[in-house]
Amino acid sequence: MKKLTACVVSCLFLLGCTSQEISYDRYSLVEDVSSQSFNSQYDIAVDLFSTLEDGGIVLKTTDVTLRAANHHRWASDLKSQIAVILNKHLSEYQVRNDLDIDVSVSKFYGSVEGNVYIDLFADVKLNDRQYFQHGYSFTSKQEEDGYASLVKELKRGIDSIGNKFAQDLSLKE
Fold first, then answer.
1. Which residues does 75 contact at the CB level (< 8 Å), separation at least 6?
2. What is the pTM of this model?
């Protein structure tokens, strides 16, 4: 009888463990961006370093290791969110909209030490001819621990880079 009771309790325990739902937190860079910025008037193609394409927020865990989070993910495609932010700044500066803009993002992550890194390269063409090329970087320290603080700082960084990029292009005209 003890064996049967122990078996039933064990089975119930295992069933309880497997029926727990896993919670996925979703984070957005564009939550406060106007819906007008989602209708891009610019031809912006964003290319991400392969680790960044997984959909999880990425942490640098050692000098040579990057890890995409399983339960802390982007609310929508990261490429699209970056393009929306760039579009917002280009519109604000009224940059000409006949440009072909290619943006390559090699860093867009935090580290276990609380550092935040963004690195991207913009290659802009006009009528299939080189018009503008420039690299942009952002490095800072998170104010608090946690993914929410990391995303807040990544948003601040991409906003800063987007503003500088749009400003640089507006001065080029």
1. 26, 27, 28
2. 0.85
